[in-house]
Amino acid sequence: MTVWVLGDQLTREHGPVAKRPDEPVLLIEAYAFAERLPYHPHKLTLVFSAMRHFRDELRDEGRDVHYYQVETFGDGLEAHFVDYSEDDLTIMRPAGGRTDRLRELVEKRGGSLDVVANPLFCCSSEQFDDWVDGRNVDTYRHEDFYRHMRRETGILMDDGDPVGGEWNYDEDNRETPPDDWEPPDPPAFEPDETTREVDEWVADRFDGDYDEPPYGGSWADPDPFRWPVTREQALEVLADFCRNRFTAFGPYQDAMRRESWAMSHSLLSTSLNLGLLHPAEVIDRAIDTYENGNAPLNSVEGFVRQVLGWREFMRHVYRRERDTFAEANQLAATEPLPEFFWTGETDMACLGDVIDGVRRRGYAHHIERLMVLSNFATTFGVDPRALNQWFHVAFIDAYHWVTTPNVVGMGTFASDVLSTKPYVASSNYVDRMSDYCGSCPYHKTKTIGENACPFNALYWDFLGRNEAHLRSNHRMGLIYSHWDDKDETEREAIDERAAAIRKAARRGDL
Ligand SMILES: Cc1cc2nc3c(=O)[nH]c(=O)nc-3n(C[C@H](O)[C@H](O)[C@H](O)COP(=O)(O)OP(=O)(O)OC[C@H]3O[C@@H](n4cnc5c(N)ncnc54)[C@H](O)[C@@H]3O)c2cc1C
Ligand code: SF4
Questions:
Q1: Distance CA 288, CA 494 (A)
Q2: Hey, which of 252, 264, 269 would you mutate to test ligand 1's pocket, going by the most ligand atoms within 8 Å of its Cβ?
Q3: What fold, for 2-116?
């Protein structure tokens, strides 16, 4: 019997590694998948370095670890079964849910695969499925799920009621910082020998350089690698968040600043998604910080909403609806992704800066992902599958179970299984929540004309093009009343400006 650990299940505290302390562990570093798409080099360094650190920690504890560095999982299993023929493997269910392919690979080589529950989430599959069965509707609504989880777990609950009397403090969480606000320095970890070795190897092996976008792996422009690759480092990020970033996390959650790529966000997604941290311990730590008087209620509620609410919700909706998401394109969007998503070459100050951050660090915070990157792509009419693929390769925390529902379900409204309306906005939103517009060559208040902000015409054009689909949506009523105020001449001008923006984007001239 051997415990097979996937690269995003790096936990010694939970699951079969913890429960079967005497069994050997199997880890397979497989490279061919990493060559199929031009992943951000930091993402590859992160996963392979975290796996090697995990291997070394287990070996230091005296554990027997079979570690294979090969092209495919099939090759790794082949090598394993030569050494340990007819071995029985046990594995934690992957976060995305499916195991058919893994089982086939193992059985083809004469072994067996026992799949056990994935304990790296707060809500089990059975709990989520029961919650769905208990409702009489066939859509998934985050707010209902979040309240259900608060009641089930008792987190931030006081005698059956939400602590503070409200479920939601979003009203307090839409501020922008004053000009003299000093954002806290985001934690960074000097790469050790293992990480340096992986980083150099990734740069050598995946440096595919092609003339066409996405230019092989070389589309990115990586800063020195900085992300946590061990549980110890991940715990440091958590401690730093609670100590230095948590108070401002709530109020500035939706704010964007040119000079601060991290704002007061927790930067915990990579560690949570790799299994280095468990969401329950992250939430416990956040609640302690609040109860000790070191973070306000709006910050802690906002954080719990993200981790206990959105993260769990996305995972289970993906598990149940992955086939729906794979083909979803309810707004029939067919534009290819503009090339500047790879190069960062656009004069639009907000988009240029956010894409630059992605090229450098493989990261953008939530509101940049939703209201800059997705908002632009959605109003531009980009095919949701192309945008999803870009997010999947460009972000260090991307895994299908979390990227796809966020991009396809939330960001682009390609499916209505989890959102009731599209997250689209004109420059008003970006201007209100950021300091970008003041330094942008485009005019934030203009909709038509050469230097008008592209977000404005694209926004109205999006509403016009999708009227048949969206007007009947009761949450879009007010927005369409503004569209109704526009006469035919104005609508034609918007149409022309949107067409010109698309042409300019295709020419690489936006
Ligand atoms: C279009 C789009 C694509 C996204 N792609 C990913 C992705 O590939 N991987 C990923 O982990 N998150 C993704 N998110 C969710 C969210 O943007 C990131 O989790 C977050 O920005 C990570 O930074 P942080 O750790 O500093 O988060 P914080 O803002 O500090 O939030 C705390 C934690 O809450 C969780 N969280 C918050 N919102 C979500 C959400 N919508 N879905 C799932 N978890 C959430 C994350 O684990 C995060 O670490 C995406 C969101 C959008 C709109
Ligand atoms: S003017 Fe438009 S393009 Fe420029 S920063 Fe503002 S929203 Fe972005």
A1: 52
A2: 269
A3: Rossmann fold (3.40.50)
- Class of CATH domain 125-185+230-320: mainly alpha
Residue closest by Cα to atom 17 of ligand 1: 366
**Residue closest to 316 by CA, chosen among 505, 122, 32:** 122
* 431 close to ligand 2 (CB < 6 Angstrom): yes
Q: Is 410 in the pocket of ligand 1 (CB under 6 A)?
A: yes
Beta strands 25-30 and 65-70 are parallel
Q: Of all helices (H) and strands (E), which one includes residue 434?
A: none
Distance between Cα 197 and ligand 2 center (Å): 40
- The pTM score is 0.97
- CA of 427 from ligand 1 middle (Å) equals 23
The answer to whether 2-116 and 125-185+230-320 have equal CATH topology is no
Q: Which of these, 276, 254, 273, 277, lies nearest to 265 by C-alpha position? A: 254
**Residue 438 to residue 434: CA distance in whole angstroms:** 9
Tens digits of pLDDT across the chain (510 residues): 999 999 999 999 999 999 999 999 999 999 988 888 889 999 999 999 999 999 999 999 999 999 999 999 999 999 999 999 989 999 999 999 899 999 999 999 999 999 999 999 999 999 999 999 988 777 799 999 999 999 999 999 999 999 999 999 988 999 999 999 999 999 999 999 999 999 998 888 776 655 566 666 678 999 999 999 999 999 999 999 999 999 999 999 999 999 999 999 999 999 999 999 999 999 999 999 999 999 999 999 999 999 999 999 999 999 999 999 999 999 999 999 999 999 999 999 999 999 999 999 999 999 999 999 999 999 999 999 999 999 999 999 999 999 999 999 999 999 999 999 999 999 999 999 999 999 999 999 999 998 999 999 999 999 999 999 999 998 999 999 999 999 999 999 999 999 999 999 999 999
Burial (0-12, 13-18, 19+ Cβ within 10 Å), 348: buried
The ligand placed nearest to the CA atom of residue 459 is: 2
Q: What is the DSSP string of 131-192?
A: HHHTSS-SS--HHHHHHHHHHHH-TTEETTEEGGG-S--GGGG-----TT--PPPPP-----
Return the bridge partners of 257, or none. 260
Tokens representing residue 275 in the block: 């299994």
Alpha carbon nearest to ligand 2 atom 3, residue: 348
Q: Residue ranges per domain, the chain?
A: 2-116, 125-185+230-320, 340-507
CATH level 3 topology of 340-507: DNA Cyclobutane Dipyrimidine Photolyase, subunit A; domain 3 (1.10.579)
